[in-house]
Each structure stands twice: as structure tokens, then as C-alpha cells.
Design brief:
By secondary structure, the protein is an alpha/beta fold. It has 13 helices and seven strands. Strand 1, helix 6 and strand 2 (113-118) form a beta-alpha-beta unit. 45% of the residues are buried. The chain binds S-adenosylmethionine. The site of S-adenosylmethionine (SAM) has 22 residues, from helix 1 and helix 2.
């Protein structure tokens, strides 16, 4: 089956960068994440990953190419898995879910209600290519529109995961979104992969990022404590630096050395590789 895609905006197209990275990772002899469903989804759609120079380049080895996305996905999955194990009546919100099958990796108890939110164009494809178990809900909406939240249960603990979506939200829209979410649920957590101001600059200006650069509007986070000042209900639980991940041991020599060196300094680490930020509210 080959699915005809609509004309995606750069923000929507970016879902193939993360999905494609996971697909390439799953083909490695010793994958970091091992999400074969991503590869199946790419094949079902018949999407050509060579649209993204960064996935196609021969200048970087496959392991280095996928390390960042695969490892951050793994850390975010672990956070969600721990949360739903402790809170089996939880609500999970995957903000800007794209075509990611996080639910199938996390495999939450059936009592958990899982919501994947993305633009209508993306959700239309999602409904065609991914299974929709009974406790899963796909919400076709712009995250900046407050209305989609109204129908969600407000009496359960919630975990929100934002994987790859922040660059496409303005600072004010991101703060308003988190503020609304933290106000809707009695308590919960937020887990995201952060982008520094330098990381945002790279997304906007690097040749390899041209397919998505046009929709990058966020200004970046340089200090994981900054969001605590924007939204007083948020408290940082942890910052997880990819340069210090156990998976660094499975990187090629140069990447391993560079990560170990950068890992000595959080500031350098944040610029060089993903930092996963984990908050409670
Ligand atoms: C880099 S992709 C990440 C997709 C998915 N989280 C993953 O990790 O594979 C960013 C996603 O955010 C979605 N997105 C960006 N801005 C959005 C908005 N305002 N409302 C809903 N979805 C949005 C895009 O459509 C895209 O699917």
C-alpha cells in the first residue's frame, strides 16, 4: 500500500525526520531503540527518506546519525512508562505525535487513556497507518487552540510528552499551552526534548534542515530551570543529557570521545546533543 500524502507544511514534514531516524535505527545490527514499527510505517506510506539530507548523507555513519533521536525517544518512553506504571488511571498526551507509535513501545495498562495530538492533516494519515486500540484517541487539532483540551478528563493525573514539537511553537504559545495543561489536570508531569538557542539557530540555518526550517519559530531554552519561571507550577525533576547516556558506549570512536568530552559540561552537552527535561506540576 502506498498512501498519498497531502502537501505537508515544514512543521508537519518534520515528523519524517524523527520517524525516519527511528526507522534507520531499527535496521542497525544493534539498534539503540529498535522500533521496527517506524520502519513499517515508512514502508506503508512509501516515503522517501532521501528528502532529508541529514538522513541520507554518507558523511556521517548510521549510528551517529540516529543516536540523538533514538536515545531521546528511549528516555522519554522510559519516563512515560514509569509514570503509567505508578498511575494506572493516568492520561497520556503526546503533543505533536506525528506518526510515532510511542504507545506501542510504552505498552501502558489498558486503564490508561492515551491521546495523540497533531494537525488534522497528520492525524488523517495516522488513522490510516497506525492501529487505534480502544484506549487511544487521536485528536486532530492545532496545539495552540485551547478548545481541544476541553473534552479531556480533568480528574486524572496526566503526563505530557513533547518530542520534537517545541521548535514549531512560539515561546508564548508554548508557555500558554503548558499553563493550560497544568491547570486542566490535578497533577502530573511534562517531559520534553529541549532545544538551546544554538540548536534552534542550527534548525533554521543548516542546509540539512532546509525542509523544516521555514516553520521553526521557538527561541530555545538554555537553562532547564527557565521554564520554572515561566510557569510557576512547574518544578524540574531531572535533566537527562544524551552525552552522558549509557548508549554513548555503542557510538563509533569519534562520537564516543566527543560525547564523553562534552559530557563534562552540561552547557556544552546541551549544545552538542539532546537534553531531555522532566518536570512535575
Ligand atoms: C519533529 S515532529 C515530531 C513528531 C513525533 N513527536 C515524533 O517524535 O516522531 C513535530 C510534530 O509536531 C507537530 N506540530 C507542530 N506544531 C504543531 C501544532 N501547533 N499543533 C499540532 N501539532 C504540531 C507536527 O505536525 C509534527 O508532527
Amino acid at each position: 500500500m502506498v498512501i498519498a500524502l497531502p502537501e505537508f507544511t515544514p512543521a508537519q514534514e518534520s515528523l519524517f525526520l524523527t520517524l525516519g531516524s527511528r526507522a534507520i535505527d531499527s535496521r542497525l545490527p544493534r539498534p539503540f531503540l529498535g522500533d521496527t514499527m517506524s520502519d513499517e510505517t515508512i514502508a506503508t506510506i512509501g516515503y522517501r527518506l532521501d528528502k532529508f539530507p541529514t538522513l541520507n548523507t554518507k558523511l556521517i555513519g548510521q549510528r551517529s546519525k540516529v543516536f540523538d533521536v533514538a536515545v531521546r525517544t528511549k528516555r522519554l518512553d522510559e519516563i512515560v512508562r514509569r509514570f503509567v506504571a505508578a498511575e494506572p488511571d493516568a492520561v497520556v498526551l503526546d503533543l505533536g505525535a506525528g506518526l510515532d507509535g510511542r504507545m506501542f513501545r510504552v505498552n501502558p495498562p489498558p486503564t490508561v487513556q492515551w491521546y495523540d495530538i497533531d494537525f488534522p492533516e497528520v492525524i488523517a494519515i495516522r488513522r490510516q497507518v497506525l492501529p487505534q486500540p480502544a484506549n487511544t484517541h487521536s485528536i486532530a487539532a492545532d496545539l495552540t487552540d485551547p478548545r481541544w483540551l476541553q473534552d479531556l478528563p480533568a480528574d486524572r493525573p496526566a503526563i505530557m510528552v513533547a518530542d520534537g514539537v517545541i521548535p514549531f511553537l512560539t515561546h508564548d504559545d508554548f508557555v500558554s499551552l503548558v499553563y493550560r495543561l497544568a491547570g486542566h489536570f490535578p497533577d502530573g508531569q511534562l517531559a520534553l526534548n529541549a532545544y538551546t538557542t544554538y540548536g534552534i539557530w542550527v534548525l533554521k540555518h543548516a542546509r540539512a534542515m532546509r525542509p523544516i526550517a521555514g516553520d521553526v519559530v521557538n527561541r530555545g531554552i538554555n537553562d532547564p530551570r527557565q521554564p520554572e519561571h515561566w510557569i510557576t507550577d512547574l518544578t524540574l525533576i531531572d535533566e537527562i543529557l544524551a552525552t552522558r547516556a549509557p548508549e554513548v558506549a555503542d557510538m563509533p570512536l569519534i562520537g564516543r570521545l566527543a560525547s564523553r568530552l562534552a559530557g563534562r559540561s552540561p552547557a556544552v552537552s546541551r549544545r552538542m546533543a539532546t537534553a531531555v527535561l522532566h518536570y512535575r506540576f
